[in-house]
Every structure is written in C-alpha cells, then in structure tokens.
Amino acid sequence: MRAFIALANETVRRRGGEPKPASIYERIAADLAPAGLARFHIVTQGDEPVAGSLHLFHEGVATSWLPVSRASAWHLRPNNFLVAHVLESLCGAGYLEYDFGASPP
Fold first, then answer.
1. Least C-beta-crowded within 10 Å: which of 15, 22, 46, 89?
2. Rounded CA gap, 92 and 76, in Å?
3. Are 3 and 52 in contact, with CB atoms under 8 Å apart?
4. Cα 29 to chain center, whole Å?
C-alpha cells in the first residue's frame, strides 16, 4: 500500500493536483477490496515500484480509477503492461465492460 500511495502522490503532483490523504486508499483497501469492489496493482522493475493502478468494480463493469507511474520509468511503458495485464485477467474472469476512466484536460 505504501508503494501505491507514494506513486499516487508523485503522479498527482506531477499533474498539478493535490494528493489525496493516505487514509482514502487505506479505507478502500480495508473496506472495498475484501468485498471484491476494488483492486490495487503495482508494476515493479526489479524491486522498484514504477507504476500502479486502482480499479473499482460494480455490476460487471471494471473502472480504472487511478493509474499512477514514475516518470523516470516511462521508457519501459509500465502503464501499457499494466493495462494489458489487467484486461487479460478481466477477460479471463468474464468481464465484458471496461471503463478507462476520466481523462484530465
């Protein structure tokens, strides 16, 4: 969870936003993830976290709520890997709809 929160804070600041409190992610992990309504993902290069995502699930739809990444790892395309992996696992689980989430202006 610490790795995801650190990447989220870095990503939000890079985009010009104010990071959310860590307690939001911790509550999602504690309340929604065990019920199958949320899932966190982390991509590493070696031992270094370089990207991640938070997906929310409701009525058969998977929604990308927060993709995050370290800019210094973009040449590795970790977000592309992450999306491909998530889509593959969702297809295997029978999901028919994926919402890529909102795009900032």
1. 46
2. 25
3. yes
4. 12
Residue 62's closest CA among 23, 88, 43?
Answer: 88
Q: Cβ–Cβ contacts within 10 Å for residue 75, how many?
A: 7
CA distance 51 to 78: 6
Calpha distance 70→6 (Å, rounded): 10
DSSP 75: G
Residues 46-104 pLDDT 10s: 999 999 999 999 999 999 999 999 999 999 999 999 999 999 999 999 999 999 987 66
Phi and psi of 101, rounded to 5°? 85, 180
**Phi, psi torsion values for 55, nearest 5 degrees:** -115, 140
pTM: predicted TM-score of the whole model, two decimal places: 0.88
Q: Give the 3-state secondary structure of residue 92.
A: helix
